[in-house]
Amino acid sequence: MVLGMILGLALLVYNLSELRMREAFKMKEEVFISNYRPATPKPTIRHVFQVFDALHVISLKHNEKIVHEKIPNIKPKHIQVLTLMGEKYLKMYESKGEDLYALLGDLLDDKIRKSKN
């Protein structure tokens, strides 16, 4: 009985997400373009999940703390969906941390100082 309740709740969240996404596409009068299917103003949430499945997150750790995260293969179609879903969704996929090159320079300087001592 509990498993049935969890399944029902999951389907409710799934359907509400799809409804919200489709309403956003309709309000902005945009179409969803992907490599998998033809352009459509009413994509299914499954279709969007398939496109987001190809994203990779690269995390740089220093002293067991994540100091930088980047998604190198984010495309305009991902940004489009995240923007339509809301600002908080877009912020979740932004790069976090310092500039990667500055950070690597600092890490290399630390290594050089430690090796000289």
Explain how this protein is built.
The chain contains five helices and three strands; from the N terminus they run H-H-E-E-H-H-E-H. The protein has two domains: 1-54, no CATH class; 56-117, no CATH class. It has helices at residues 2-28, 45-52, 76-85, 87-92, 100-116, and strands spanning 58-62, 65-70, 96-97. The protein has 117 residues and is mainly alpha-helical. The protein is elongated.
Brief overview, please?
The protein has five helices and three strands. The chain is elongated.
Low-confidence stretches: none
Individual helix count: 5
Strand content: 5-15%
Distance between the termini: 65 Å
Mean pLDDT: 82
Spatially, the strands of the biggest sheet line up as 1-2-3
- The proportion of residues forming helix, as a percent range, comes to 55-70%
Q: Please tell me how large the radius of gyration is.
A: 20 Å
The string of secondary-structure elements, in order, is: HHEEHHEH
Quaternary status: single chain
Rough outline: elongated
- Please state the structural category: mainly alpha
* Largest sheet entry: 3 strands, antiparallel
Total count of strands: 3
Count of domain modules: 2
